[in-house]
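Running this now, will post back.
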Amino acid sequence: MTTRTAADGCVTKLPIPVGLTHLGPPVRVPALPSTVDLTWIPTINDRTCKQQHTKGRQAQARAVAAAINSAPMAQDGTYNCPEGAGLGVVATFDQSPPVVVSLDGCRFIQQYFSSARYATSQTAAALLPLSPPTGTWRSALRLSR
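Update: finished.
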């Protein structure tokens, strides 16, 4: 687990192996999930420092799963990413292992022991209806479209 700390004391934990893109088979989630639980991770600069939680029903879960499973694979190599502040969402489909979608920086989709994918406009469009009404997530998803 990676921990990033801001000067104001806000701690954001991202459960991903940062910097590793090729660890095994591609990130894959169940194609036909019944639900998706989303934990929205704030940036390290967020003064409230509060995660928010949302849940998607079957149709929403399947839209997010399809977007993740069809996202392009990240290529091997060294990345010079735009600066990221830890903004992201952790998606858990039914009882499968969680997937982290970074909403800033290189915008990787990562899962333990899996090769990373890139978050795309399709990923953003699937997540947008499930994003919290407050915080920076909604604006980050709109910029990704």
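The chain has three helices and eight strands. More later if anyone needs it.
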